[in-house]
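=== RUN LOG ===
request id: a7f3
mode: sequence -> structure
chains: 1
length: 377
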Amino acid sequence: MSPLSGGALNEEAKQWHEMRFKDQQPDRRSYHSTFVFDRKLYVYGGLDIREGSLNSLYEISLTCLDELSEDLQGDQQFHSRHKWRYVQTTGNANHIPGPIAYHSSVVYKDSMYVFGGNNTCIADADGDFCRNLHYLNLRTMGWSLSRTRGDDVRLRDEHTAVFDPESVQMLVFGGFAGGTRSNDVAIYNFPSNTWSNVVIPEDEDKPCPRSGHQAVVCKGNMYIFGGKDDASEKLNDFWSFNISDQKWLKVEAGGHTPYERSGHSMAVFDDQFIVLFGGIWDVTKELNDLHVYNTGKNEWFGLQSSSGSPLGKTGANRDSPTSPARVDNNQSIDSPNRINRSMTKNMARMSVASPTKKSNSKKRNTVTAPRNMNVLA
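=== RESULT ===
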């Protein structure tokens, strides 16, 4: 078996390098969750096309990124001395989620909380609503169960869940709920252990139902981008949800909006920039372009174009997918190089979303066709 590899972006040359790790490594998987805690990257759950859903947890120290050298050339592999480690967890059988995929995970204090996914053991007797939250103490590696209060919140998969440190809440948006795509927002308050469903008046704007999108929290707002709508069409609309006011706003940004996609990833850098990478534009047409949204200037710019990206369906003014990444000379954000200098150590923070399927969310344990989605960070 060949060593598992990851990727890191060379900060000066703007080139990707492959990082390779020896010995034990995670099983291949997609539709998993990733999170960072105590300078370690964790990979939890996911789907193996032959073995089905997984319940394993692996970790690797992010100090491996400190080994990168500025002397690396483009397309050059880097062999790290660090190793992946299988993490053994403990707990009552009723407290362990078991094999799971299409879920989400967020970190609060010293624990990782799991929501949604294709494992029906986290549902109530009817299988539709969330009564409990499984969480893993990342110090003791023991599972526990929190019996939640408040509103009935629909379980779902292929959704997003993000943590807002200011309000100490987890915000869940979209995904497959009850077999159909949704656009509702549910909020879990950690201190009170309480769920609440956000009610948006009919006359107010809000995103269409979707799955396979991505979300991040930045400056008191939850931002979402892309995904697939009810017709399974890819989207490239961009929305912000004000967490305190609980109102949606469609973001009409300047610059060059990324192509339509699902299954991409997003991360926040420096509490100002939203970094978007990759995704799927169509079957067998994965993307590897890298875009940054400047929240201060309300503007997109590209750091790296995709050699396989399609032409935009709706924008004749977009760059050719085969041309170099375009960054306007008049952008004054201390230049994209300032982002690149820290990108190497921040790319691992991206949690990877997965491509969508139309099947009912309660029947996600089997998959009929493999997808080329080796998305392990």
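=== NOTES ===
The CA atoms of residues 125 and 131 lie 10 Å apart.
The chain has two domains: 1-88, 89-362.
=== END ===
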